[in-house]
Amino acid sequence: MAQSVGQRVIQTLQTTVIGQTGVSPTGAVIFLHGSGDNGHGVQDWVQGLMNQQFMFSHLKVIFPSAPFMPYTLYGGDPSTVWFDRLDLSPMAPEHLESVNSMAENLKALVLKEVDSGIPLERIAIGGFSMGGAMSLHLAYRYLPQVAGVFGLSCFLNENSEVYKALEVGQLENQTAPPLFQTHGDNDTLVPSAWGNATHLKLSQLGVNASFRSFPRTEHELKKPALKALYSWLLDRIPV
């Protein structure tokens, strides 16, 4: 028997899951970690900050792990990253070969959930730092039917393919999914201005985007931002 697209998931994308507290999931959240981390790491980070407050009665939260690949910012040494970066700057060109390849694999991971019976319209995609940027590519270029996208302390390059896709109407008659962004005011690794510039550009291109800045926050996850994300997810995928 032929496999559906959602079943053809590469074996290197291992996942950890926070299961829903109800009988069965009616929706899902895909949460992508930052560069050098993995699914277990960001799950522990979220759960350590939120305890049981990041569990849903109807949603399971999936934390995939990126495979090891050569990473230019580490001198070409391998790391768990969603794509390669030529420079940590919005002025740098995107490494589209790695972005597009990973987007196809993550799309298959999402469609596996659809195969299990969860509607695409009840799946949210997002992540922290590089995971947030990867999620923007995945949602706005590959899976515009998702319930929403979230990006925590992330940014897009100035000439991103995401912007180009929205500019040329690649989504056709599909409304772009709403975006929830947060950023720390004291982030020196990925300055808040980069995240806000991404928010403004996407808003200009028709995305219903919100941006929340958190004081005394560096390049990190903190409980206030996660609590705001939790509320947003409940609004996007209600019980």
Automatic annotation (TrEMBL):
Domain Phospholipase/carboxylesterase/thioesterase residue range list: 17-233
GO MF entries: carboxylic ester hydrolase activity; palmitoyl-(protein) hydrolase activity
Organism annotation: Cloeon dipterum
Gene3D superfamilies cross-referenced by the UniProt entry: alpha/beta hydrolase
Record's GO cellular component terms: cytoplasm
Entry similarity comment: Belongs to the AB hydrolase superfamily. AB hydrolase 2 family.
Protein name: palmitoyl-protein hydrolase
The keyword Hydrolase is assigned to this record: yes
Residue spans crossing the bilayer: none
Lineage summary: Eukaryota, Metazoa, Ecdysozoa, Arthropoda, Hexapoda
UniProt keywords, alphabetically: Hydrolase
InterPro entries named in the record: AB_hydrolase_fold, LYPA1-2/EST-like, PLipase/COase/thioEstase
The EC number(s) this enzyme carries: 3.1.2.22
Pfam families for this protein: Abhydrolase_2
